[in-house]
Amino acid sequence: MLILDKNSTQTNLESFLDCITPVVPSQFLSKSEMRKLNRLWHPWEREKVDYFTLGDLWNCYDEWSAYGVGVPVCLDDDRNLIQYFVPSLSGIQIFTSNGSVNSLREETDSTSETRDSFSDSFSDESESEKFSRWDGCSSEEGLFEQDGLWYPNDRFGNLYFQYFETSSPCGRVPLMDKISALAERYPRLMSLRSADLSPASWMAVAWYPIYHIPMGRTSKDFNTSFLTYHTLSSSFQDMDIEDDPESGEGKSKGGESISLLPFGLATYKMKGDVWASDKDGRDQEKLVSLLSVADSWLKQLNIQHHDFNYFMGIRRG
Amino acid sequence: MNDLPESADGGGAAVGERPLSSPLMSPANQSPSEIGPELWETAEKTAHMIICKVQPTAISEERRRDVIEYVQRLIKNRLGAEVFPYGSVPLKTYLPDGDIDLTAFGANVEDRLAEDMKFVLEEEENNRSSELVIKDVQLISAEVKLVKCLVQNIVVDISFNQIGGLCTLCFLEQVDRLIGKNHLFKRSIILIKAWCYYESRILGAHHGLISTYALETLVLYIFHLFHTTLDGPLAVLYKFLDYFSKFDWEMYCISLKGPVRISSLPVIVAETPEDGSGDLLLTDDYLRSCIEMFSVPLRYADQKSRGFQPKHLNIVDPLKEINNLGRSISKGNFYRIRSAFSYGAKKLGQILVQPEDRITNELQIFFLSTMQRHGRGQKPVVQDPYPQSTYNGFIPASSSLGTESYKVENSANAADHRFFGDADDLATPSIACLNISSDSPKSYTQVLKESVNAIGMPQDSDHASLHQGTRSRSAIPESSNSLSDLSGDYDSHFKSLQYGRLFYEYTFGVPYLPMAPMPPPQYENKKPWDSVIYPSQLRHNGFSHGHPNGFMPMYPMSHVLVPGASFGREEMPKHRGTGTYFPKMNRSPQGYRPSAVKGKNQATLRSPCDNGRNVIFTETNLLERNNHEQSQPLVLADQSVNLLSSGIHQPFSPRGSGPTPSGTFSSERYRQQRSAPSSPQISCPDSSGMQTPRPALSRDPDRGSFKSSYHLKDQEDFPPLSV
């Protein structure tokens, strides 16, 4: 995905998208495993299917969660700086094949006993987050109570897990910490393979600014937060991103790794033109396009994504 | 959690099953001594090289001195207010990208002074013939007013009446001298700040992260517990990460007296630190005397304070027990800071078990961002307004870390680009490297290793100035790269502090009070002071193989802590007159009204004249005060006057016995000030012994300070960010 001379022509927005894109080590499915793939999710004949495990994906966020990730930014006066962001898990839905339902059940049951202690370890979190987590984590029942019509099982698969963050940015744990905590109760959050996930599986990562080096400019331009949407499934992996660069949907192959480029994007406190700096309006177009993809995605899944609504200025309640 | 080896140390939720009895959540890693000495030597050599890339240099000091003197002159001339540096610049622990912290003592009404200052600076910004280039003047109207601007592209933060920052500066300067070992304390601070700022991005109170003073207190805590085993900055960093990544922040706060159980707050009940050798660096007496020396005047708000307010990462200010230095840290940032400590501890632990020949490379990767930004042969001239020329100037020296050495297949073009960033300050930061590290870490690491091998260790000449001891400045002009001596100008710091106290007292009518809310009974005899003053006592805190006096030839240990101590107890003027200056003040502080203060102050004006240089700031004064006036702390207003009029600086001047500035204020000047309530006219504490009427600090303004003691009015006040 990285093009050699990209940095010289990259806009700040592209730089951001590049830097926050996880590049996950991948493996190829064996022929026999390929035959077992869900045809609904993998309708195309392919020579090879490469996949990653979710654990490897989270590892990409390990250092970012601790240190933040740096995004080189070029200012209009030709000064450069690096703006740092910390990722947090904003939302995630994982749909798996029907075949795994039983094992999923057992897993959920066996971990239910530890729920209380788990809850205690977050006892200082807001009630709203707790509520949301339990609402989200209690497997598919909660979901289908909302609207049983949304998810025809044959297409989306079974909802193994979902989570939506609702706490304020300054109260959030970094992504890796959140995943680690969730994975204590949902161990398959680490072991699931992207090839086994339905195309409806996705996550959103919220990126909040830390600071920039060098400092000096205390411009409000650097208060911008981002929300990036990523698919977790292998289904889109052969979609050539260059065919549809504006949406950026899907993943690009990187030899032994898979880049999970964001297919959708929302921004918050976008002021000034730091993140839409190019003169021909390419960034602006891209922002609009990525936002509309995110919006469509959420509508398609009929999701109320708290952060998205917040970023859009939609306040509920 | 056990089945998540990769993430278990991420820390976020891994707090469930720790033993409640210990502040440490898990046993410590290998202690530095368990790692082979040869390996440590190699590792410390690399750390030394890294420190040399970011520590103060002659050039960076000069730039900062120019800026400070310029602002001092400007504000003095235009507004009649004195401005002093504090924080990392005078302490000489600033990073190349660090800001300059100044504090102005001016009119009572901070708001108006702040606005006036903004106005003056903006005028100067538009003045094409101004001496230095000012840009981006802003008034930050937080709870604590702050004027922020760029001078010569260096961020300058001007706060108001921040005596706390000056106290902290003096305190840390003294601690550095106590620890010795060629400024091991300051060198450790520089290394750890670099890691926190460039690598883990957890430094900066303005951003809800760790304040510099909080970080320095954490470093001091590590010295406090483990000083006997710490001989190099990397060992300190290692212990720092190891200890604080395992510390049970949710149950305990950090205090130099030992971990304090949060549940016991607001009462501060320290537990015995279980992890150290038991040989603590700072004795209770030392700490108490520091509090006496370097405490902050209480505002009324403080006096009514609710005590230590726990937040998420809790650190007791060594100089002010109710002050939580971690109060700037938000909950989310607390989680990340903890993760950063854990991640860093894990990484560094892995590096230190590598074969010796790989350690140098691995450590440079551990400090990758630092090295990318500042790691080239030449010390970058930070904040250069003309990056291009700087860049060109430095390029020839870049051969040691050639462009190709960082080159990675994915970003060949970017590699060229990157080196603009290393050599100059605000110019291009290493754009490609970030992509590299995220896209192809393995290959990048490989390449870096090769390049690092090519670089080798810095030449000895590179460090010459550091090893020459403390008087190396004369050698500076030979190389633009000269490293600065890290000795701060304690005289100057202390003078600033005294000025601040006097001004504060004058303006706010709140006399200088020692902080200890309830003086311990020990105050009633002089024993504690004996133990602080005398070298033998300090030596007992010394180091197995240190050279306590070797690194500070001009500062005999006996002078380290208490100014005036060289008088010796016997020679100490018996300042029996103390009581006579003090009006009988029986009212409580709360009942104290400004008018009363004024009256009192005027009544005491005589004291400097009467006593002149005979009155010195000694433990005698304090003891007497504690003996006789314990219930009437306000009389200490007069104490400040004595302080300022005394010759306290002479005995321990870094310049030896020469004609050093002998006092902060002449009594005449002081009298004038007192009779001129419009305080903007207050003159600076230039010493009576000096010829020039320049502000005291301009005598040697490049001498250090240290960043912030943020003794803010409440927990909403975030101190100025200093890096």
TrEMBL record, chain A:
UniProt xrefs under InterPro entries: DUF789
Region feature (Disordered): 105-124
Ranges of Basic and acidic residues composition bias in the record: 105-118
PANTHER family referenced in this protein's UniProt entry, alphabetically: DUF789 DOMAIN-CONTAINING PROTEIN, T15D22.8
Protein name: Plant/F9H3-4 protein
From TrEMBL, chain B:
Biased composition range(s): Basic and acidic residues: 697-716
Region (Disordered): 1-35, 457-484, 577-612, 646-723
Low complexity composition-biased segments: 651-667
CDD domains recorded: NT_PAP_TUTase
Domain PAP/OAS1 substrate-binding-related: 179-371
InterPro entries: MTPAP-like_central (IPR054708), NT_sf (IPR043519), PAP-OAS1-bd-rel (IPR058920), PAP/OAS1-rel (IPR058921)
Pfam families membership: MTPAP-like_central (PF22600), PAP-OAS1 (PF26180)
Residues annotated as signal peptide: none
Polar residues biased stretches: 23-33, 467-484, 673-691
Segments forming domain Poly(A) RNA polymerase mitochondrial-like central palm: 49-166
Name of the molecule in the record: PAP/OAS1 substrate-binding domain superfamily
Lineage of the organism: Eukaryota, Viridiplantae, Streptophyta, Embryophyta, Tracheophyta
